[in-house]
TrEMBL record:
InterPro entries: BCAA_transport, Leu-bd, Leu_Ile_Val-bd, Peripla_BP_I
Pfam family, one: Peripla_BP_6
Origin species: Neobacillus bataviensis LMG 21833
PANTHER family, per the entry: LEUCINE-SPECIFIC-BINDING PROTEIN, PERIPLASMIC BINDING PROTEIN OF ABC TRANSPORTER FOR NATURAL AMINO ACIDS
Keyword set, alphabetical order: Amino-acid transport, Signal, Transport
Signal peptide as annotated in the record: 1-24
Protein name: ABC transporter substrate-binding protein
Gene Ontology biological process terms in this record: amino acid transport
Highest taxon listed in the record's lineage: Bacteria
SUPFAM superfamilies reported for this sequence: Periplasmic binding protein-like I
Domain Leucine-binding protein: 45-370
Family: Belongs to the leucine-binding protein family.
Amino acid sequence: MKRYLNKGFLLMTVLLLLALTACSGNSSEKTSKTNSAKGDKVSAKLGVISYITGPGAAYGEAITNGLKLAQKEINAKGDVKIDLVTEDSAGKQEQALSAAQKLMSDDDIVGIIGPTLSTEMNVVGKEADMNGIPIMGTSTTAEGIPQIGDYVFRNSLPEALAIPTALKKAVDKYDVKKVAILYGNDDVFTKSGFDTMKKAAEDMKLDILTIETFQKGQSDYNAQLTKIKGLKPDLILCSALYNEGAVIMDQARKAGLDVPFVGGNGFNSPQVIDIAGQAADGLIVATPWFADKPDQKVQDFVKKFEAEYGKKPDQFAAQAYDALYIYAEALKNAGEADRDALRDALAKIKNFPGILGNFSFDKDGDVVMEPTVLIIKDGKFQLFE
Ligand code: 1QQ
């Protein structure tokens, strides 16, 4: 990762800094206003950009619930005090960008969590990197997100890890030879998922019978599904967010297409079952999170989450919960609420014991993670073995 500084910009910055130092005579004012002194408890304000309203609002609800629970626990422990300032992006690129600009213009905000979609992060990440504020996606899984810049991180399972793992298991289990691919061609995440699906199918020497596309908000998929049915695939690879994905599965089953589906992160939501009902059976996904995992840490979190919100946490809640703990750890290690110090401390996180396992960033700010493969069976996500 490289950051390029323009010489004119550098000169202006130096002159501005000289002028500010001469005028204020108190160069530590900004940090002393918002931070405790090094070694003391750190108090920090973080911005959150989430998909809270609109067709994908269940993603944002899970994410903000995970964050709020973690915030409550972190603040109760008292090593670090975190304030969250939350903005709704409604899943829209422009709205996410103006939310980010608003958050970044507050000097007291030292880091950002979100936005929810890779489509949003593609523009917001660039802006955050340019402004030197750390940003961490908890659900952004497309290729190339952490490579946007030094200040851009994620703790979510990339499609490039999830899809080949899920497909391999399905191919072995069902002796799959022929597949059809269906993907949303107007979204960064669904397009990236498609690239990964195509490559994985080619690497596994599968016969790709057809590649079909759809757009966000589409309600009728019968043209694509009728064509796919006529070609008799053993399995369908589908790259979609839950609201389109669930409708596709429902229409596929009604059209008599009973083959298994392999989906990416967007499909790994209980919303798929809520919307598609029985038609969701046969969906296979790879995930860093499984709420029924017999692990003490996982079960403690599930219990606390259920007590707070009356439902089990999904992958998006779990990733957000871990993300705030990672930020808290980085703030503690930085010893001050400062954007650059926080970025450097985040980059150094290694083997942090989260509920998704021991967490480390790689050199690009991407995750190192082992997914588990699940299948929806009898209306429930279950281990796929
Ligand atoms: C992305 C995703 C979506 C499923 C987030 C909700 O993974 O946009 O990258």
